[in-house]
Design a protein that fits this description.
The chain has 386 residues and is α+β, with helices and mostly antiparallel strands. It has nine helices and 20 strands. The chain folds into two domains: 164 residues, FAD/NAD(P)-binding domain (3-Layer(bba) Sandwich), CATH 3.50.50; 154 residues, D-Amino Acid Oxidase, subunit A, domain 2 (D-Amino Acid Oxidase, Chain A, domain 2, 2-Layer Sandwich), CATH 3.30.9.10. The strands form four sheets. Strands 6-7-5-15-16-17-14-18 form an eight-stranded mixed sheet, sandwiched between helices. The protein has a six-stranded mixed sheet with strand order 9-2-1-13-20-19, sandwiched between helices. Strands 3-8-4 form a three-stranded antiparallel sheet. A hairpin with a 2-residue loop joins strand 16 and strand 17. The longest helix has 15 residues. The mean pLDDT is 97. The structure holds flavin-adenine dinucleotide (FAD). The site of flavin-adenine dinucleotide has 39 residues, from helix 1, strand 14 and strand 18.
Length: 386
């Protein structure tokens, strides 16, 4: 087995898999180092929402470019990503209605199928949803959710078919330099060499950055998720919903409804911490909020809970670009929203590495240099917490 490649990708999550897929399609020799197994990090625990409603244009464009992969997965990647079209609804408080309208107009300009709907439409779409507090919402009829582990495995399998080597149960313990440039990695399975290394290590990415002397502001974000049985009176399905007024999102999965909360997600814990148990009080808060929005869920029951860690940055936007020694690339810090943009982000990363610049989407705003330059990314929604 070769230990020499053109590009070494650290991390077998959906981003590492997507980068490998796009590089391998162009004939690049890639080795992916994964300390556990494909999808062992945030990807395998992700809620998998696939929607385009973002409040920055670069994110919306990445999500929209990625969407064609989710819709045509078998043709574009092969295998399955489990995409289920449910429609997506963005709910906001009254003070955010103007921003919602501006965002939706921006999305329409990009070409995203989305429009504004009022209370009557909301009641028709989700008869069991309490919407008295909602004046207007954004609706994406084509959106839904996918299965992140399936998506990552399908991308990785397709990359492997094109020659990528996946090394699992292999931790990167050091990054090798020669003449100040990237030369490879030191791992628990020996040395591997390549002139380019990509840090796609999710919640663990800061450790990799430090191996090359990079001190970027980078933390971890722990996120709890609850699955509830839906009572049969609630119907066979419902759209995926982000509910800013209740700081919550929810989506169906068969006869279950998955619920996550936007607030009280612990930051800067050790990413090797307990991702199998949710924080104390989470279930009570999540049940209370889903029953507030969907009162019929009072007749439902708790199915299960789980948790996961992602990397987070000070502006809660990804780090995508170059920094540190020549040959070092970053695709990390996805701050809890990175699954749905992975197909296009991997494509942009392959363009950046092979062509010197991303062509599919302008990803320059995500540059790691923005922290030192004081150019933090600012979304249109201000303070959804109040
Ligand atoms: C509970 C939860 C729900 C989420 N819900 C959504 C959602 O609905 N929609 C959405 O778009 N996003 C969501 N996200 C965010 C999304 O899942 C992540 O942004 C995305 O999966 C990140 O992918 P990644 O490949 O960057 O990182 P990861 O999937 O974390 O992969 C990083 C990999 O690197 C490996 N690794 C770490 N250190 C080393 C090392 N030293 N050597 C070798 N390998 C190493 C890890 O084992 C891991 O497999 C959610 C996240 C969580 C935690």
């Amino acid at each position: 087995m070769s230990t020499t490649a053109d590009v070494i990708v650290i991390g077998g999550g959906v981003h590492g898999a997507s980068i490998a897929f796009h590089l391998a399609r162009r004939g690049t020799k890639v080795i992916v180092m994964e300390r556990a197994f494909v999808g062992a990090g945030a990807t395998g625990r992700s809620s998998g929402l696939v929607r385009m409603h973002y409040d920055t244009e670069a994110d919306a464009r990445l999500a929209w470019e990625s969407f064609r992969y989710f819709q045509n997965w078998n043709e574009m990647v092969g295998g399955t990503c489990g995409f289920t079209r449910t429609g997506f609804i963005q709910l906001v408080k009254t003070q955010h209605v103007e921003t919602l309208k501006r965002n939706t107009a921006m999305h329409q300009r990009i070409g995203i199928p989305t429009f504004l709907i009022g209370q009557d439409d909301l009641k028709r779409l989700v008869p069991h949803m309490a919407v008295d507090d909602v004046e207007v919402a954004a609706y994406e009829p084509e959106s839904g959710y996918a299965m992140p582990s399936d998506a990552a495995n399908a991308l990785m399998n397709a990359a492997r078919e094109k020659g990528t080597r996946l090394v699992q149960n292999c931790s990167v313990t050091g990054v090798l330099l020669a003449g100040g440039k990237i030369a490879g990695v030191q791992t628990t399975q020996g040395e591997f060499s390549a002139p380019f290394v990509v840090n796609a290590a999710g919640a663990w990415a800061d450790r990799i950055n430090r191996m090359v002397g990079l001190d970027l502001p980078y933390g971890t974000w722990k996120h709890d998720v609850m699955m509830m049985w839906r009572p049969k009176e609630a119907g066979v399905s419902h759209p995926a919903v982000i509910d800013f007024p209740n700081l919550m999102y929810f989506r169906p999965e068969g006869g279950l409804t998955l619920v996550g909360l936007e607030d009280a997600n612990p930051q800067n814990e050790d990413p090797d911490g307990d991702a199998d148990h949710v924080s104390e009080g989470f279930v009570e808060r999540a049940v209370d909020r889903i029953c507030r929005r969907m009162p019929i869920m009072e007749k439902g029951g708790l199915h299960s809970t789980h948790s996961g860690y992602d990397g987070i940055t000070p502006d809660q936007h990804a780090i995508i670009g170059t920094a540190g020694p020549e040959g070092f690339y970053l695709d990390c810090g996805h701050s809890g929203t990175g699954f749905k943009i992975a197909p296009a982000t991997g494509l942009c990363m392959s363009e950046l590495i092979l062509d010197g610049a991303a062509r599919t989407v302008d990803i320059s705003v995500f540059s790691p240099k923005r922290f030192a330059e004081g150019k933090l990314i600012k979304g249109n929604y201000e303070n959804i917490w109040q």
